[in-house]
Amino acid sequence: MRKLSSIILMAVFCLGVGIHGARADSTPVRIVLPYIPLMAEGPTEGFFIEMYQEIAKRTDKDIVIDVAPPRRAVQAFVSGDYDALGAFPSLTALPVSLASVPFYLRENLIFYKSGYFPADSLQHPDNLAGHNVGLSAYPYPPAITNLAGVNFERAPNDQSLLRMLANGRLDAAILEKFSGFHLRDQLGLSDVIDIADVSVTTENIFPLFQANRQGIENQKVFNLALYDMLCDGTLATLFGRDDVVPDLSLLERDIPVQNQRKDCVASGSNKTR
């Protein structure tokens, strides 16, 4: 009887460990993204959201996504409320974290009210000196924020920025290229706002993970998924164009040699294998 009881107790113990292990493996990866028109407009809406949904399918990870105002998203990640910050620009100082491989190439362009600036006068950002220029709540690189003689004004979001520009409260604004195009058309301001089609800055966008053991594991898994999605053309397909995907060589730096694909031909990359 005593032997039977011992066997039962051991079985219960093993069952308990198995359940605990299964739960640990299925712990969701909580990701917060800053609100970005076209890219991340809600937990189920936006190109970046679709990308993370694809990663979830490929990795069998349970991914939970929230979208918050840009500064709040960064603060929530820094405070440890999330496992990952879903989109962060490469030319901005990083918080303590583990950076993953890039998935998007962001171009910052100058938007301005039609007719305000002479033709071709904004081919260089130094020509914004003496003007009131709007920035959204996103992080901007020093190459923009340190422009000499420019009077910068922050707006809470891109919508406010473009409305202020259309109403004459700003002389110009600097926004990401394609989300800015999308929002300008959505607000019916295409006939009011023009774009200087020369990039002020170009930077890569990547996820950040917490600098802990789980973050290291998440970083490895997401790196491989993003690499495969670049190689098989999924990233370019999701974004609807191949000139916004990052250079293949940037991803291969963080991919173990044994995981690198010889059949990788990345759209938008100047390097193929």
What keyword list fits this structure?
273 residues; alpha/beta; D-Maltodextrin-Binding Protein, domain 2; 2 domains; disordered N terminus; disordered C terminus
Concise overview:
The protein is α/β, with parallel strands linked by helices. The chain is built from nine helices and nine strands.
Description of the molecule:
- The protein is α/β, with parallel strands linked by helices.
- It has helices spanning 2-25, 47-59, 70-78, 142-145, 158-166, 177-186, 213-231, 234-239, 248-252; strands at residues 29-34, 63-68, 84-89, 98-99, 104-113, 132-135, 151-154, 172-176, 193-209.
- Strands 1, 2, 3, 4, 5, 6, 7, 8 and 9 form a 9-stranded mixed sheet that branches.
- Strand 6, helix 4 and strand 7 form a beta-alpha-beta unit.
- The relative contact order is 0.16.
